Amino acid sequence: MRIPWRFVAIRFLGSAAALFAAISMVFVILHFSGDPAARFIPDDATAAEAAEISRTLGYDQPLLQQYLRFLGDTLTGNFPVSLQYGEDPLTLVGRNLPVTLELAAAALVAGSVLGLGVGYVCAMSKRRPVRRVIMAVLMVGQSVPAFWLGIVLVLLFSVRLGWFPATGSRRLEHLVLPTLTLAAVLAAPLARLFRTTLLETAQQDHVRTALAKGLPERVVIARHVVGNSLVPAITLIAMQAGALLGGVVVIEAVFARPGVGQLTVNALTSRDYPVVLGCLVVLACGFIVVNLVADLVHGLLDPRVRTS
Length: 308
Description:
mainly alpha
């Protein structure tokens, strides 16, 4: 199965435009939040010293020239040195990125398994009370903020029961609660979509024909119902992978995991502008790349997307 080159080219151009827009938005937020040079000027600096620092950093230049310089430095990874750590921000982000990717991957796998399993039970279970209870839990899971759910899990399983540690990242036990938090949020929309798709597919003519021919019900469900219902579910999973990056930032702050999210929060607290800039650019690029892959996977699985 091949993807037309025009479809791929359009998706790459769209991703490039999104990256350009994300970098431009960071520049706008940076300048609308105050004088960028003020973040590098010590509190006891004189007016002459402040003017010299502003001139050295290029913040005395016209705004358009500052923007072009900012765009070039961002695309080449030429960020200012961290004010707090004295290192290159991209080095700091790279050092914390494996912890973030570990949590994102674990949450994506757990959320996908949980969502598909719950959606299947809701669609195929013959016990109506069970379906209603599960759907009610899903509605609650989809409406509750991730950070609030994380705090509840910490209070229940760490403070009261003492089963899992609330913070850290060295052992496997440290991964359980943040993974469950993100997985619950991801599983809710996936389960609802998979349930709806299963019910719609089960009413199709080819499924009724297969049952009329005498095929066992479990074979028909596995081959004709579940198999045809996985395409939209897989597409949603791929799209949720991009949204995970934003969720991981918040959850890492809740569970004090030393990832990119915790690094971003610490940099914001200490007003370490170069590190904040590096984290935002890396997260934005990661989000755009993941969504590009999701679009390509969607086009590979669904021919209607490629031809539209």
